[in-house]
Amino acid sequence: MTARQTFFQKSFKVLHGSGLSRLLAPFTQGCGAIFMMHHVRADQERSFRPNQHLEITPEFLRECVDRIRRNGYEILAMDEAVDLLKSGYGRKRYAVLTFDDGYRDNLEVAYPVLKELGAPFTIYVATGLIDRQSDLWWIALEHMIAANDELVLSEDGSGTGISCRTLQEKNACYHQLTQWLTHEVGELEQRQIIQRLAERYDFDLAALVDRLMMTWDDLRQLASEPLVTLGAHTHGHHALARLSEEDARKDIMTGVYRMQAELGRKPKHFAYPYGNQVAVSERDARLLADIGFNSAVTTFPGVLKSVNARSPMLLPRVSLNGRFQDAYVIDQYLTGAPFALYRAACWARGGFGLRTGVSRLFPSTR
Ligand SMILES: [Zn+2]
């Protein structure tokens, strides 16, 4: 478990047990919250699950919607929520449900639940995955570590590799390699390394994307549904801040053009791939505003407050983490208290270098 996940798990227990979150709520609660999800599917019975935080069950999704509403929050489409935030008007509290990437289970599993409950939602689509031109490298890496006892990374396959025999070694290997691939090597090299590994360990990258991602026909079906908003998530699913300005603009615009060509309309809302401090910069926020997006969501943890209206291209989100599938976490999240405590902990940890502390502690959520 990462430092951030451990922190939230501990703070949930303390806040829940002590009632502290209720005391803090008047100071920490915002006007709304944007929830972030990825996969929605039945629980996977495997011991090695480094991406477990990216999947929740349909039962938990149903509980979350119920709990959000019981807390007095109305679930709104992204358009309406952004309008309310920007107008700073009214006393209504609201929540937005968002899903990143464009997984097939969003259509097959999440959509029937949300349709039945009448809950609007947004899917941010990485068009390169729908076009089968991009790779789900983090899932491919999980599969390759699961299936092998050692991963050799050198270009020619020589030398000793990283041992991944036991569950502990597999988790350590996954953590070490994702850190390296998202922080040390460049975005293009990252994909080349995964492609090289896939060839060496006989892993079919294209079949993985085909199995997990929606098609354009699937998306056209969702686009015709009034409850659904389709937002942009770039074409190549790259960490924009790690690209040159020209490449970042190109990755955003290719995503926009592909959605427009296939779905007949331009996306108005955007989600940064990975969305953390390493993947998001002020430059990218300016690019998105210039292109004409109405909003852009990050994975910076937090609830929506009126102050966020000043930077609609850098909105925080609440990750519905598959490791904490208990509905009481919704009550805790909505008070805003866990995020305020987390920010305070980061502040204390990093002296007053808040941004540095945060960027070190925030793992990517893809
Ligand atoms: Zn993503």
Notes on the structure:
With 366 residues, the protein is of the alpha/beta class. It has two domains: 3-132 and 213-361, Alpha-Beta Barrel (TIM Barrel); 137-200, no CATH class. The protein is 50% helix and 13% strand. It has 16 helices and twelve strands. The protein has helices at 3-18, 20-28, 58-70, 78-87, 104-117, 127-130, 137-147, 167-184, 187-200, 205-212, 216-223, 245-263, 282-291, 328-335, 337-349, 354-361; strands spanning 32-37, 39-40, 55-56, 74-75, 94-101, 121-125, 150-151, 162-163, 228-232, 269-271, 295-301, 315-319. Strands 1, 4, 5, 6, 9, 10, 11 and 12 form an eight-stranded parallel β-sheet that branches. A two-stranded parallel ribbon has the order 2-3. Strands 7-8 form a two-stranded antiparallel ribbon. α4 (78-87) links the parallel β4 and β5. It is globular and about 65 Å long. The two termini are 16 Å apart. The structure holds zinc ion. Residues 100-101, 126, 233, 237, 273, 366 line the site of zinc ion (ZN).
Please tag this protein with its features.
globular, eight-stranded parallel beta sheet, alpha/beta, binds zinc ion, 366 residues, TIM Barrel
